[in-house]
Write a structure and sequence with these properties.
This protein is of the alpha+beta class. It folds into three domains: 149 residues, 2-Layer Sandwich (Beta-Lactamase), CATH 3.30.450; 89 residues, Orthogonal Bundle (Helix Hairpins), CATH 1.10.287; 145 residues, Heat Shock Protein 90 (2-Layer Sandwich). Helices cover 56% and strands 18% of the residues. The strands form three sheets. It has a five-stranded antiparallel β-sheet. Strands 7-9-10-12-11 form a five-stranded mixed β-sheet. A hairpin with a 2-residue loop joins strand 4 and strand 5. Helix 2 runs antiparallel to helix 5 and helix 9 packs antiparallel against helix 11. The chain is rod-shaped. The two termini are 34 Å apart.
């Protein structure tokens, strides 16, 4: 079953399938037409050859009858002529004006006399498993019509040879068509390989490597080479735009962070010392401080993403024991949240190589995300285990995420519930940062979720033995 699952399904809409089918149909039609024409031509050639023999006999027969008639009666002359011309392959019989047989070959088959509507044009019939070419011609002696002479030639051997040749030709045509289709399919597959390579390049290229892409198809057709060059130029332009965008984002985030931090500090100082402020003024200052802090956090997140995109994020990788690090992270999380966080360790002393601070950022972000979207009376469970890699699972019992939206949760600024994210102060960048950090440290992150049944975020890192 495993091998069957690996077989590629045929894409009936693909260019390769359409070209192969089109050429195969044309090849079949062309070779089939040639084979049919050869069949028809050989059949006609066989009949024409025997027709010439019949015509030769028909021209000679009256002359021989006239010679014999000078010595014997007309009927005897016809019989002697038939006897001289007959053999096991050529049979003759003669019918007078009254449609009575008055002379025939000694090897005559009675069934032949029952055949009606014979004309001077030869036709093939099957009699006693033999093929006969039969025709009837009017016989004139001394320019006087005396009856009809019928000629039957046994062409069984020729017909068997003809049938054998036709079968051989049919088999050869089918084999030639099959070989041609396979050769054409391979040639089309090989010719379309550059297009497949272009698709793979376009599919696997990352945003930060757009300017480094190189598509070289020196031996490809000129049309494919032109397409590759055009795509390469387009990717380079996109890379330049991406770089400019990231640079702008980094500069703006960096420049705005400092003044906003100062503004937040002044607002908090004013709020602490504002004994003479009214309740409305204090509420307004509290909102301003909250929004300023939220904007500063957003700028911090944007800076982290910009560094990750540019490959400038600093990582101090070291070997750590995940079990100890997770306990420390849980203690940090519970300082700010009154929520039970349970640690389930299925394996002890799991070692991985990560940046401890960035690893804490990843886990705290996922724990914070689980707490925000879970009811207050539910626990957060963290499961540690290892198989071929170290696995950290963070389980919540929250609102869950519909299957159709799960692939988008790691997108920047994407929120499953816009209103709820706004209330909790989310920026829509937390999971995007988590994924960037996990990927940078050679890890993977996955999500399993069901609406109203909670979510499981699974982070995996290479295991250190």
């Amino acid at each position: 079953m495993a091998n069957i699952s690996k077989v590629k399904a045929i894409d009936f809409n693909s260019l390769r399938f359409r070209l192969t089918l089109g050429v195969a149909l044309l090849s079949t039609l062309g070779l089939g037409s040639v084979a049919f024409w050869i069949n028809w031509k050989m059949q006609n050639l066989l009949i024409m050859t025997h027709k010439q023999t019949v015509n030769s006999v028909a021209n000679r027969f009256p002359h021989d009858v006239e010679i014999y008639s000078e010595m014997v009666s007309l009927e005897m002359g016809i019989q002697k002529t038939i006897k001289n011309l007959s053999d096991h392959k050529n049979l003759f019989w003669f019918k007078n004006k009254n449609n009575l047989i008055i002379a025939k070959s000694s090897y005559f088959y009675p069934q032949l006399a029952n055949i009606e509507h014979l004309s001077s044009t030869p036709k093939v019939i099957i009699l006693n498993q033999n093929y006969w070419l039969i025709c009837g011609i009017p016989l004139n002696i001394n320019q006087k019509f005396i009856g009809h002479l019928y000629i039957a030639q046994n062409i069984t051997n020729e017909q068997i040879l003809f049938s054998y040749l036709i079968r051989s030709l049919t088999i050869a045509t089918i084999v030639a068509i099959a070989i041609m289709i396979m050769a054409i399919a391979y040639y089309i597959y090989y010719s379309l390989k550059p297009l497949e390579k272009i698709c793979n390049v376009a599919e696997n290229i990352s945003a930060e490597k757009l300017k480094e892409v190189s598509i070289n198809f020196n031996n490809s057709p000129s049309e494919v080479k032109k397409l590759a060059q055009t795509l390469e130029k387009m990717l380079i332009r996109l890379g330049q735009s991406w770089e400019n965008q990231q640079q702008l984002l980094s500069n703006v985030s960096h420049e705005l962070r400092t003044p906003l931090t100062i503004i937040s500090g002044y607002l908090q100082s004013t709020l602490r010392r504002g004994e003479n402020l009214t309740s409305i003024q204090k509420e307004a200052l509290s909102v301003a401080v909250s929004e300023a802090n939220r904007t500063v956090q957003l700028l911090e997140d944007l800076l982290d993403l910009a560094r990750a995109d540019n490959g400038n994020i600093q990582m101090q990788l070291e070997i750590v024991i995940v079990n100890d690090l997770i306990r420390e992270i849980i203690a940090m999380a519970q300082q700010y949240r009154t929520r039970n966080i349970n640690l389930i360790e299925k394996n002890m002393n799991i070692k991985i190589k990560v940046d401890p601070n960035r690893f804490k950022q990843i886990c705290l972000n996922l724990i914070d995300n689980a707490i925000k979207y879970s009811p207050e009376n539910t626990d957060i469970n963290i499961i540690l285990k290892h198989d071929k890699s170290a696995i950290i699972e963070i389980h919540d019992q929250g609102i869950g995420i519909p299957l159709a939206l799960q692939h988008r949760v790691f997108e920047r600024f994407y929120r499953v519930d816009e209103a709820r994210n706004r209330d909790t102060g989310g920026t829509g960048l937390g999971l995007a940062i988590v994924k960037s950090l996990v990927t940078t440290m050679n890890g993977t992150i996955n999500l399993i979720s069901q609406p109203e049944k909670g979510s499981i975020f699974t982070v995996s890192f290479p295991l250190i033995e």
